[in-house]
Amino acid sequence: MGSRGPVAEPRRLPETAAVLEVRRAVRDWAVAYAPGGDAAAAVALSGGADSLALTAAAVVELAAVDALVVDHRLQAGSEAVANDAIAAALALGCRSARVLPVEVDGDGGMEAAARRARYAALDEARAGLPVLLGHTLDDQAETVLLGLARGSGGRSIHGMAEWAAPWGRPLLGVRRAVTRQLCADMNVPPYEDPHNTSPEFTRVRLRTEVLPLLEEVLGGGVAGALARTAGQLREDGAVLDALAGELLHTASDGATLSIETLATAPAALRRRAIRSWLLAGGAKALTGKHLHAVDELITDWRGQGGVAVGGGLPGSRLVAGREHGRLTLRRERQARRR
Questions:
Q1: Which of 1, 22, 57, 199 has the fewest Cβ atoms surrounding its Cβ within 10 A?
Q2: CA–CA separation, 170 vs 136, rounded Å?
Q3: Whether residue 334 has pLDDT greater than 90
Q4: Per residue in 113-139, pLDDT tens?
């Protein structure tokens, strides 16, 4: 569904503290990741406070903004909510606004399925533009806590990046309270998604129970500290990834990896190299358990068999193994069950 109604000139924003903070965040993001002064972007607009604030600032700070409104169709009246978001986008001065209806189904629960459907629809509709997402510092803190709970290594608590093509997140340094204040300052009422207060979702309980308790017990500043930690870990991770890439190049003959070369490398680099190699070979949904099992083929070899990693095709499985001093990755046919 395309835009509706005339596109307005960019709305003049009041110069309040909240508006200036959000505008500065979008401007800084554009300077860092879309330099040149003529940047255009799509914005994922839900109608909530975060994405409304992002859209309002982006329309002023960027050359052109197209609003993409995903309708998950999970609640009664979702079409009306999407249409309201379209109207808000055009009133704010977006160049265009579209509703993207999606079907939410698949494994992993409703949250994961909705996320997959949303990102796929945005990627298909963005027409080559970066897509700006309204994730805030509070969302970053929640993401880090979820990563800690999974316990799958430093990568799981890197949090979200400001830029991971095609996704941009200009508001990762802005608190959720600021985006709500911007909407109040502009007299633009945000949509209040009932899912955002439903305790059946883990992230909602983190937001409404866990983080407030941590702030109270630890004397405040917890969300900011978690976000800073994520940023520091991403910087460290980028260096380690570069070093692991060099190790992978040295160990590889194009298809297999040298056990001797990997065995003499530091564990942190070796496991990162293994992870990259497995992903390049088609592995999916790798866990810490997978990586440690493959690592043991190198460091604790006892003649054990191969390690099955996710990513096999129907009727086959992807298996990492050790053969003649090399780490191998091959697809093995699975016997049919009778």
A1: 199
A2: 8
A3: no
A4: 888 999 999 999 999 999 999 999 999
